[in-house]
Amino acid sequence: MAFPACVQCGTRQNPCRCKVVGPTLGFVAFLITGIIEWPVGAVVYIFKHAKGRRIMGHPARHVYPKVSRSIPI
């Protein structure tokens, strides 16, 4: 089984200007929250469209960026 590795270059958060750990952990956190929140958001979307969209977009808008930015390497 291959583990996904995300690389972000051109950042000024560390001396080598490349990040591997932060984006990779951000991707893993995105997948875990997506598995949980997307089915919940789909059910909520049936009754409340705006709330369902917010729930389904939460992993991409909030989880991935926060985890990726919190680890500077």
TrEMBL record:
Keywords: Membrane, Transmembrane, Transmembrane helix. The keyword Membrane applies. The chain crosses the membrane at residues 27-47. It comes from the Eukaryota. This is Cold-regulated protein.
